[in-house]
Amino acid sequence: MMRGNMRSFGADSVLSVTLILVLSAARAFAQPQRGLVPGFFIFGDSLVDNGNNNRLITLSRANYRPYGIDFPQGSTGRFTNGRTYVDALAQLFGFPYYIPPYARTRGPALLRGVNYASGAAGIRDETGNNLGDHTSMNQQVANFGMTVEEMRRFFRGDNNSLTSYLSKCIFYSGMGSNDYLNNYFMSDFYSTNHDYTPNAFASVLLQDYTRQLTQLYALGARKVIVTAIGQIGCIPYELARYNGNNSRCNEKINSAISLFNSGLLKLVQNFNNGGLPGAKFVYLDSYKSSNDLSLNGTSSGFEVVDKGCCGVGKNNGQITCLPLQQTCQDRSKYLYWDAFHPTETANILLAKLTYSSQTYTYPMSIQQLTTL
């Protein structure tokens, strides 16, 4: 009897069972989780990249020790010793796992969120080319478009259900740092410093970024966190190269990025005041938070705020952390992990501050955004 049943279980039946299993898995992933948001989608650069650059031909990679020395899975491609800011934020959202990189995420898992970030990426396509291959913001948005097309299959083509689902998800976009570090202020490699005044460059960046964020909105993003550029004139990389007499930091760089940040805040206000109907954007003031941590780091437990925990040369910032290099003894006492990126301790602290407080967020906290 059993052998007879097995013979009658033909190709059509196998296909039907397979389809049922796929749809069941999709429904399981699509169910709102026990946390606060059903999905978390991340766009950015090395501050939040978690492995998308691992197989690219680029100097902007971190899939080697001692990167990830404090991360449970080891060296995954995160540009820090442990969790990134978005890793810590995902935990606060209630996710029981870390949002996976786009480079190795397909199928129903896409519904719970994807990290598209890429080290050296910028708003402009050419940004970061000095370091090698990367995924620019334009390509990250295009990748999300392909994700939405794949997700549509799991909603059986029901666009209304997919739109409703995405409207409950949180989107994070942190871009712009490399457009200054690995473009505008790298005049040996790029012409933008000669082509644009600081005001004009901020303006063209904001024009491009407006288009990119509007494309995300058109694809379904409704709850969006956008980050200002941090105080990169004060990171170990710049401190190692700056010889100013009147200030510790390179204020020329800080002044230029402040023009971008003020324009980004106005953009968020415009989006929220009807520019993108039904959307709510939160501006994350990374410039103010990084400045406060540099000036008042001791009150947060940091003993070293001007040197990388791992690196070479002045301020451990002339060359970034090398493979198998010895790190500082107590990583929790350092604000910066390497020449560019915060330590896990700093990332977790910032995530907690921005999640529940409006000290660095406008017009509401991230926690308030999740409840809308």
TrEMBL record:
Subcellular localization, as worded in the UniProt entry: Secreted
Single biological process term from Gene Ontology: lipid catabolic process
Signal peptide: 1-30
Keyword set includes Secreted: yes
Main localization category: secreted
The keyword Repressor is assigned to this record: no
Pfam families, sorted: Lipase_GDSL
GO terms assigned for molecular function: hydrolase activity, acting on ester bonds
UniProt-listed CDD domains: SGNH_plant_lipase_like (cd01837)
Superkingdom of the source species: Eukaryota
Family: Belongs to the 'GDSL' lipolytic enzyme family.
Name this protein carries in UniProt: GDSL esterase/lipase
Organism annotation: Salix brachista
